[in-house]
Amino acid sequence: MARAYSIEDTNLNASLISSRKINYRDIDLSFAAKPAGDLFKKVDAASVKQAVKNLLLTNRGEKPFQPEFGSNLNEVLFNLDTEFDPDFVSDLIAEAIENFEPRALVLSVSVSTDGDKNRLDASVEFQVVNTQEIVTTEVSLARLR
Protein backbone atom coordinates (compact mmCIF):
# COMPACT_ATOMS: atom_id res chain seq x y z
CA MET A 1 0.00 0.00 0.00
CA ALA A 2 1.58 3.28 -1.08
CA ARG A 3 1.14 6.42 0.93
CA ALA A 4 1.63 9.93 -0.36
CA TYR A 5 3.02 12.54 2.01
CA SER A 6 3.33 16.28 1.80
CA ILE A 7 6.65 18.11 2.00
CA GLU A 8 5.49 19.61 5.29
CA ASP A 9 5.20 16.19 6.89
CA THR A 10 7.97 15.59 9.36
CA ASN A 11 9.21 12.40 10.95
CA LEU A 12 7.99 10.25 8.06
CA ASN A 13 9.36 7.11 9.67
CA ALA A 14 6.70 7.26 12.41
CA SER A 15 3.87 4.76 12.37
CA LEU A 16 0.49 6.10 11.29
CA ILE A 17 -1.84 4.05 13.46
CA SER A 18 -5.07 5.58 14.58
CA SER A 19 -8.25 4.37 16.12
CA ARG A 20 -11.65 5.89 16.13
CA LYS A 21 -14.27 5.31 18.75
CA ILE A 22 -17.72 5.33 17.26
CA ASN A 23 -20.34 7.08 19.34
CA TYR A 24 -23.94 6.12 18.66
CA ARG A 25 -26.42 8.96 19.10
CA ASP A 26 -30.16 9.19 18.51
CA ILE A 27 -32.96 11.49 19.53
CA ASP A 28 -34.89 10.32 22.58
CA LEU A 29 -38.23 9.21 21.16
CA SER A 30 -40.11 10.26 24.27
CA PHE A 31 -39.59 13.82 22.94
CA ALA A 32 -39.29 15.18 26.47
CA ALA A 33 -37.94 18.73 26.35
CA LYS A 34 -35.01 19.98 28.37
CA PRO A 35 -35.58 23.20 30.33
CA ALA A 36 -33.63 25.08 27.65
CA GLY A 37 -36.06 23.81 24.99
CA ASP A 38 -33.76 21.23 23.40
CA LEU A 39 -34.56 17.54 23.11
CA PHE A 40 -32.84 14.85 25.12
CA LYS A 41 -30.66 12.40 23.25
CA LYS A 42 -29.80 8.76 23.68
CA VAL A 43 -26.15 7.77 23.42
CA ASP A 44 -24.23 4.54 22.90
CA ALA A 45 -26.00 1.42 24.28
CA ALA A 46 -29.20 3.32 25.14
CA SER A 47 -29.38 4.50 21.53
CA VAL A 48 -29.05 0.98 20.14
CA LYS A 49 -31.55 -0.38 22.68
CA GLN A 50 -34.11 2.23 21.62
CA ALA A 51 -33.51 1.42 17.93
CA VAL A 52 -33.98 -2.32 18.50
CA LYS A 53 -37.21 -1.78 20.41
CA ASN A 54 -38.47 0.59 17.71
CA LEU A 55 -37.62 -1.99 15.04
CA LEU A 56 -39.49 -4.76 16.85
CA LEU A 57 -42.59 -2.63 17.33
CA THR A 58 -42.70 -1.61 13.65
CA ASN A 59 -44.78 -3.59 11.16
CA ARG A 60 -43.58 -4.19 7.65
CA GLY A 61 -44.91 -1.53 5.31
CA GLU A 62 -45.18 1.17 7.98
CA LYS A 63 -41.95 2.95 7.10
CA PRO A 64 -42.22 4.93 3.85
CA PHE A 65 -39.96 3.78 1.01
CA GLN A 66 -38.73 0.78 3.02
CA PRO A 67 -41.53 -1.81 2.83
CA GLU A 68 -39.41 -4.63 4.33
CA PHE A 69 -38.37 -2.65 7.45
CA GLY A 70 -39.79 -4.00 10.69
CA SER A 71 -40.37 -7.31 12.42
CA ASN A 72 -44.09 -7.84 11.79
CA LEU A 73 -44.72 -9.15 15.32
CA ASN A 74 -48.28 -7.80 15.34
CA GLU A 75 -49.17 -10.36 12.68
CA VAL A 76 -48.16 -13.13 15.08
CA LEU A 77 -50.63 -11.89 17.71
CA PHE A 78 -53.55 -13.21 15.66
CA ASN A 79 -52.14 -16.76 15.61
CA LEU A 80 -51.30 -17.16 19.30
CA ASP A 81 -54.20 -19.52 20.04
CA THR A 82 -53.68 -21.94 17.19
CA GLU A 83 -50.35 -21.91 15.38
CA PHE A 84 -47.85 -20.36 17.78
CA ASP A 85 -44.26 -21.46 17.26
CA PRO A 86 -41.78 -19.74 19.62
CA ASP A 87 -38.83 -20.69 17.40
CA PHE A 88 -40.47 -18.97 14.42
CA VAL A 89 -41.02 -15.78 16.44
CA SER A 90 -37.45 -15.87 17.78
CA ASP A 91 -36.13 -16.27 14.23
CA LEU A 92 -38.36 -13.41 13.05
CA ILE A 93 -36.93 -11.12 15.73
CA ALA A 94 -33.31 -12.14 15.15
CA GLU A 95 -33.66 -11.74 11.37
CA ALA A 96 -35.15 -8.25 11.69
CA ILE A 97 -32.32 -7.11 13.95
CA GLU A 98 -29.63 -8.66 11.74
CA ASN A 99 -31.09 -7.02 8.63
CA PHE A 100 -31.91 -3.55 9.91
CA GLU A 101 -29.82 -2.80 13.00
CA PRO A 102 -26.12 -3.24 12.22
CA ARG A 103 -25.10 -1.84 15.63
CA ALA A 104 -26.52 -4.89 17.47
CA LEU A 105 -25.31 -8.49 17.50
CA VAL A 106 -28.08 -10.81 18.73
CA LEU A 107 -27.00 -13.23 21.45
CA SER A 108 -30.34 -14.72 22.52
CA VAL A 109 -34.07 -14.28 22.10
CA SER A 110 -36.73 -15.68 24.43
CA VAL A 111 -40.43 -15.52 23.69
CA SER A 112 -43.43 -16.23 25.91
CA THR A 113 -47.13 -15.85 25.27
CA ASP A 114 -50.45 -15.71 26.97
CA GLY A 115 -52.84 -16.96 24.30
CA ASP A 116 -55.95 -16.21 26.35
CA LYS A 117 -55.06 -12.52 26.55
CA ASN A 118 -53.47 -12.38 23.07
CA ARG A 119 -50.19 -11.19 24.57
CA LEU A 120 -46.63 -11.75 23.40
CA ASP A 121 -43.56 -10.98 25.51
CA ALA A 122 -40.08 -11.08 24.00
CA SER A 123 -36.72 -10.56 25.61
CA VAL A 124 -33.72 -9.87 23.37
CA GLU A 125 -30.15 -9.96 24.58
CA PHE A 126 -27.61 -8.38 22.26
CA GLN A 127 -24.11 -7.00 22.21
CA VAL A 128 -23.47 -3.48 21.00
CA VAL A 129 -21.03 -3.72 18.09
CA ASN A 130 -17.48 -2.49 18.77
CA THR A 131 -18.02 -2.68 22.53
CA GLN A 132 -18.16 -5.41 25.13
CA GLU A 133 -21.49 -4.12 26.44
CA ILE A 134 -24.36 -6.62 26.58
CA VAL A 135 -27.87 -5.16 26.70
CA THR A 136 -31.26 -6.77 27.27
CA THR A 137 -34.47 -5.22 26.02
CA GLU A 138 -38.00 -6.45 26.51
CA VAL A 139 -40.97 -5.92 24.26
CA SER A 140 -44.60 -6.67 25.12
CA LEU A 141 -47.35 -6.73 22.54
CA ALA A 142 -51.03 -7.16 23.24
CA ARG A 143 -53.89 -7.18 20.80
CA LEU A 144 -56.56 -4.58 21.43
CA ARG A 145 -60.12 -5.79 21.30
Characterization of the model:
The protein has 145 residues and is of the alpha+beta class. The chain has a domain at 45-142: Roll (Nuclear Transport Factor 2, Chain: A). The chain is built from three helices and five strands, in the order ββαααβββ. It has helices at residues 44-57, 73-76, 86-100, and strands spanning 25-27, 41-43, 104-114, 119-128, 134-142. The strands form two sheets. A three-stranded antiparallel β-sheet has the order 3-4-5, covered by helices on one side. The chain has a two-stranded antiparallel ribbon with strand order 1-2. β3 and β4 (119-128) form a beta hairpin. It is globular and about 50 Å long. The termini are far apart.
Major β-sheet, in short?
Answer: 3 strands, antiparallel
The CATH class of the domain at 45-142 is Alpha Beta
Given the helix and strand composition, which structural class is it?
alpha+beta
Strand-residue proportion: 15-25%
Assembly status: single chain
Global shape: globular
Helix-strand pattern: EEHHHEEE
* Sheet with the most strands: spatial strand order: 3-4-5
Give descriptors for this structure:
alpha+beta, 5 strands, 145 residues, two-stranded antiparallel ribbon
In short:
With 145 residues, the chain is α+β, with helices and mostly antiparallel strands. The chain has helices spanning 44-57, 73-76, 86-100; strands at 25-27, 41-43, 104-114, 119-128, 134-142.
